[in-house]
Design brief:
Blueprint: E1 6-15, E2 18-28, E3 33-39, H1 44-51, E4 59-64, H2 66-71, E5 74-76, H3 81-84, H4 90-95, H5 99-102, H6 110-122, H7 138-152, E6 156-160, H8 168-184, E7 188-192, H9 196-202, E8 205-210, E9 212-218, H10 219-222, H11 226-232, E10 238-239
Parallel strand pairs: 3-7, 3-8, 5-6, 6-7
Antiparallel strand pairs: 1-2, 1-4, 3-10, 8-9
This protein binds adenosine-5'-diphosphate.
Adenosine-5'-diphosphate (ADP) is lined by residues 15, 20, 38, 40-46.
Length: 240
């Protein structure tokens, strides 16, 4: 088995002098599709910030594979209204995913331009490359942001509540795109999403967080747990 892309061993993350997430042990391997679930305030965003390197662990060990250390992680942030109105072309948004590696160079390299083109092709948005991002539909915007995230790395894609604001058929289209990248192109996926009903079908692993890890394992097993049953039964006030 290859080295995990990302591994947490008894990791804590927090702010100032208190820990919000404690004793998390889990790993993401090539081909994994992991969903983090839990109630609001359970620490999902904090864990995600930690995995992205925006917070330092206050305890335990977080290890990234050599590839991820070099390339960083492809991140699809939650869309804010300001981002939705961003006055740039699709191609400019996609290629900006290479910014992390550009350093102080004022221009994108030929290889970066090729990578942006390749990822627009991959997401079926090549014909939109000169369109203004803010004029796109919700689904086209998501495809643009996925292509952008894949410019950073196509090893691991982290998505924060990605279907918020999408209508049901656009959301299904989005899941198909992610499933294709995961199953056919071997992109590992880590997702926080409110949409548990779909997620247990899509993901192969679930991590249920409530400050500490309540469940971590195969999605099939999660469905049989008390947590999984309660949540899938449609209780309110939960988010995946
Ligand atoms: P979730 O994403 O599951 O809703 P969060 O990780 O956003 O949970 O929040 C978990 C806890 O951490 C909450 O009690 C919240 O108030 C606290 N928290 C979140 N962000 C910060 C911050 N920047 N500074 C201090 N506390 C924070």
């Amino acid at each position: 088995m290859n080295q995990p892309l990302l591994k947490c061993e008894h990791v804590d993350f927090g702010y100032e002098n208190y820990d919000v997430v404690k004793n998390v042990s889990m790993e993401i391997n090539e081909g994994d599709y992991l969903c983090i679930v839990g109630e609001n305030g359970s620490g999902k965003s904090t864990l995600m910030k930690g995995l992205l390197g925006l917070l330092k662990p206050t305890g335990g060990l977080l290890t990234l594979s050599g590839d991820l250390k070099k390339s960083g992680i492809g991140y699809l942030p939650q869309q804010t209204p300001a981002q939705k109105d961003f006055p740039a072309t699709v191609r400019e948004v996609v290629i900006s995913g290479c910014l992390g590696k550009r350093g102080n160079r004022p221009f994108y390299s030929g290889a970066e331009k090729e990578k942006a083109d390749m990822n627009m092709e991959r997401l079926g948005i090549m014909d939109l490359k000169k369109s203004c991002y803010r004029d796109l539909s919700g689904g086209q915007k998501q495809r643009t942001l996925i292509a952008r995230a894949l410019c950073a790395t196509d090893k691991l894609l982290i998505l924060d509540e990605p279907i918020t604001g999408l209508d049901p058929s656009t959301a299904q289209d989005f899941y198909q795109v992610i499933r294709h990248l995961n199953r056919e192109e071997n992109v590992a996926v880590l997702m926080v999403s409110h949409d548990i009903q779909n997620i247990v079908v899509q993901a192969n692993k679930i991590l249920h967080l409530k400050q500490t890890v309540q469940f971590y394992g195969p999605a099939e097993e999660y469905k049989k747990t008390a947590f999984g049953k309660e949540f899938l039964g449609g209780s309110n006030g939960w988010s995946c």
